[in-house]
Amino acid sequence: MKLIIAITRDEDSEDIIKNLIREGFRVTRIASTGGFLRRGMTTLMIGVEDEEVDLAITNLKDKCRPVPENNERCTTIFVLNVTEFTQV
């Protein structure tokens, strides 16, 4: 199992979340701040099976709007191994 942490711009987050949910992914949203000028960001946590990582990342990329100024990125993505997962 993997945990995808995606830090995305607020203005893209709603479309990204809707797209991921439509594809059957479960998403947790956390409001965050960071980057140049401390713009509003949204951190998404997405738990996926190993074979779903590429599909989830493709869905993240599909809903990112390009940003021409300052080489700003739409989303920063981290993929982490999960050794244990429990729901209580």
Low-confidence stretches: none
The total domain count is 1
> Could you say what the CATH topology is called?
Alpha-Beta Plaits
Structural class: alpha+beta
Rg result: 13 Å
- Give the total of beta strands: 4
Q: Topology as H/E string?
A: EHEEHE
Q: Major β-sheet, in short?
A: 4 strands, antiparallel
CATH C-level category:
Alpha Beta
Strand content: 35-45%
- Note the gap between the termini: 18 Å
Structural features, described:
This protein has 88 residues and is an alpha+beta fold. The protein has a single domain (2-81), classed as 2-Layer Sandwich (Alpha-Beta Plaits). The protein contains 2 helices and 4 strands; from the N terminus they run E-H-E-E-H-E. The protein has helices at 10-22, 53-62; strands at 2-9, 27-34, 39-48, 75-81. It has a 4-stranded antiparallel beta sheet, with helices on one face. Helix 1 (10-22) packs across helix 2. It is globular and about 40 Å long.
Compact summary:
It is built from two helices and four strands, in the order βαββαβ. The protein has 88 residues and is α+β, with helices and mostly antiparallel strands.
Keywords:
4 strands; 88 residues; four-stranded antiparallel sheet; Alpha-Beta Plaits; 2 helices; alpha+beta; globular
